[in-house]
Amino acid sequence: MKGKMNDSVRPRKAAGAWWRAAVTGVVALGLLVVARPAAQAQDVSSYTRDTFIQWFQKNKDAKPDFKVGDVLTAKDLERIRPFMFPGYLEQLNFPEFKMPIMDYVDHTPRKDYLDCTEKYQAQVRLTANHTMDNYVCGQPFASADLKPGDPDSAWKAAWNFEYRWQNFGLFTVPPVTWERFGGTHEIPVWEYPPKEWSAGIPYPPNTMPTPEELKLMYGGGGTFQRTLNAFYERVYFSHLAQVPDHTLPVAGAKDFEFKEFTGFYTPFDIRGTAFIVYRYADPTREDDGWAYLPALRRVRRISAEVKSDSLLGTDHTIEDFYGFSGRELEWKWNYIGIKDVLAVQDSQHEFTYMYGPNGIIPNDSWALRHYYLMERIPTSERHPYSSVLLLWDTQNWDTWLMVAFDHKGKLWKIWEFQKKWSESFKGPWAAINHGVFSTEFQSVQVLDVQNNRGTIWEVPGGFPNVTGTEVAHLYDINHLETLHR
User: Fold this and answer.
1) Which of the 8 DSSP states describes residue 450?
2) Which residues have CB under 8 Å from 445's CB, separation 6+?
3) Which among 233, 293, 447, 227 is positioned nearest to 359, based on CA atoms?
4) For the whole model, what pTM was predicted?
5) What region, left, alpha or beta, does residue 469 occupy, with left being phi > 0 and alpha being psi -120 to 50 degrees?
6) What is the pLDDT of residues 198-233, one digit of tens each?
7) Which residue in 24, 124, 148, 376 is deepest, having the highest Cβ count within 10 Å?
8) Distance CA 320, CA 116 (A)
């Protein structure tokens, strides 16, 4: 990928080419589009953390002058400004932009998670080293007890996010496409995953988008350089509200928080490339990971702790996914306050529709939702970010917007995590989403405002139920080689 390297990215210990391929697979859970945007109407790369804190302080109690049913446009950016992160607001400034305002949708998690919360929350304690004692399942700490500026509240919020309701974990089968803006493109080919990996998952039939939908999903210009088809599943093993003893019925389940599998099956040159990562229930224990790379023809152990490296030279790191997928104890946390923000967390489409001059803005309905404004600061001076600000939904703790700053304190990246409420699916994906009561990932868009490029992930899938047999097979290191070229 051309373009200058941000000078906040510091050299890392050599990990080898095989690791670079490995970390790519660990988080390849969506349609990945790397794009070089057109020139922005306003340079936002000079924004700092103070820009965002001042925006929050000025607008924290703002009330909208629009209502459900209104359609805002680029002429209404000043009306939108109090309810949108600086830097992202500027991306909405194009003639075709429309923001239909929809009503707020209740995102209360499922009853078994709420029951667990009610039964066990009172016994959970935050320890001196910021871990938890006596946590069983449900939301660890009461939202009503969180206080802005309180260090303990910040850690409690971080653990609430980590153990938010996600049923058994995310499953998705996306193509992965690299794009450059400019020129024209053909619609990528979507293919079904191999049965060697998807066996045991209630994968719904006829899930491919129609040609008409694909045109809306891949709206805008750009040149597609390469398309990969991937399979991804994360499964949680412990602290489960939905099973009687709160652990999966597999040996040693209580020792793990989750396990993660990623594999690629097309094109031919990467077919069979697969990765497994273990996250342990002990928050002080480092992750473990393994990779099977066809070029090496063997399974290699990987250092899954290298989570802040750029993936394929894109704008993502492993820690960026889900808004945060790292280990809490490697960060300092700050709870800033609650803010109403406009968001696409109830998409009106089965798949994300994109438009705009850079093809990176959701063409959908927006609603005003309540968010915790959080900050995470890396404890390692070698980390490429100086800090990250996040918006976590006050009902289910899912991420909406996120921004990262470089070591000069300047705005570097902006993320938008688009979701769809599980109960609103009407197509084939309804089979694994109805009854879950969660917001399912639809797509993730990230804009690197310093290097003028972007990344788009389309993430069809959901949070299905799983079986012990499926889990035992999928996450068995000895089965990493099951799919061959």
Assistant:
1) T
2) 354, 360, 361, 362, 415, 416, 418, 454, 455, 456, 457
3) 447
4) 0.89
5) alpha
6) 777 777 777 888 889 988 988 876 667 677 788 889
7) 24
8) 28
Task: State which amino acid sits at residue 226.
Answer: R
The answer to whether the beta carbons of residues 449 and 411 sit under 8 Å apart is yes
Instruction: Annotate 91-106 with b (16+ C-beta within 10 A) or e (fewer).
Output: bbeeeebebebbeeee
Q: Tens digits of per-residue pLDDT, 388-426?
A: 999 999 999 999 999 999 999 999 999 999 999 999 999
* Amino acid sitting at position 367: A
- Residue length of the chain: 485
Q: Which residues contact 288 (CB under 8 A, 6 or more apart)?
A: 277, 278, 280, 301, 304
One DSSP character per residue, 316-348 reads --GGGTTS--S-GGGEEEEEEEEEEEEE--S-S
Q: CB–CB of 117/164 below 8 Å?
A: no
**Which residue blocks in 121-199 are alpha helix, DSSP H?**
151-162, 195-198
Are the CB atoms for 232 and 254 separated by under 8 Å?
Answer: no
